[in-house]
Amino acid sequence: MASVTDVWDRPLTDLRISVTDRCNFRCVYCMPKELFGPSFAFLPRQELLTFEEIERLARIFQTLGVRKIRLTGGEPLLRQELERLVERLAAIPGIEDLAMTTNGSLLSLERARRLKSAGLKRLTISLDSLNDETFRAMNEVNVPVSRVLDAIGHAEAAGLTPVKVNMVVKRGVNDQDILPMAHHFRFTGHILRFIEFMDVGTTNGWRMDEVVPGSEIVAKINAAWPLDPVAPERPGDVAQRYRYRDGAGEIGIIASVTAPFCRHCSRARLSPEGQLYLCLFASQGYDLRRLLRGGATDEEIRDAVIAQWTGRRVRYSDERHQHTAPQPKVEMFRIGG
Ligand code: SAM
Ligand code: SF4
Ligand code: SF4
After folding, report:
1. Are 79 and 72 in contact (CB under 8 A)?
2. What's the whole-model pTM score?
3. Which ligand is nearest to the CA of 200?
4. How many domains does the chain fold into?
5. How many angstroms is it from 71 CA to the middle of ligand 1?
């Protein structure tokens, strides 16, 4: 199989597919409610790539080295009949890992089982706090913690394991929940990952003083339950891994602000309307839908992706401190995490 590398010699191994820009949450760090009210215009249905189109692209990406696919959004479980897409992607030879990130609020046990039998391997479920008041204030739509804890249980029961739990930490908002969250997920087999609040998009009012550095999170947990660092599974992995010395399991730290990992970033991102993004912080995508709907052959689409990837030099997080003026950036709910 051919592989393609960018100007910094980074291979293309991961594809994140955002299946919808819609979400039933209004997380303060992603889609603040005051800006994304009832009149906000999401993409109309005909703008979205069809499952057939997504599968075709995924097959082309696979020939370029992609082995791992993650479905995301917006909220991916809002996309009708998502299981049909999972089935199509799971059938692509050479795709070794097929996972999804969800807020969990729509994940019944039945749905989790359907996703598993369609070929989904693992789930990452986002949960920012165990405190109902804090969580409701962060998701801004009054969804209780119990709903997401149930979803984590359903994912486990369906065998979508190990379940990863994503907690975005914002100073002054939920940093008091770091230890309770760590405590709750010890000895469960679930991997809790603490994510630094990032300056994604242009609408979340990001400020550096609201970022809790990963090192501070590790120190806090280590003081309560000693941790040992664990080597990354693969060079492109974003999380720094730690294991509890007492055998309680593993945690991850995603310190994209204080310890960027652009050097090994091997991810391409596909937006719901078929734009290819080479970075989470990109200002512009490349329109693959135009090629798909304009009658391009697989070869032509493949060449276009190769041209994009081989010209890729973006390393936003590595260079964050050099940006003096605010940059135009795609919104997180458009391209997922
Ligand atoms: N709606 C799904 C969910 O929340 O899991 C999938 C899409 S969401 C954009 C993917 C991940 O990005 C979530 O774990 C979310 O917490 C994280 N995220 C969103 N905005 C973020 C920000 N400003 N900083 C850090 N992580 C963020
Ligand atoms: Fe929706 Fe996920 Fe963004 Fe929250 S983080 S608003 S759940 S897309
Ligand atoms: Fe990859 Fe861009 Fe994130 Fe750097 S900032 S790790 S290049 S997505």
Report:
1. no
2. 0.96
3. 1
4. 1
5. 12
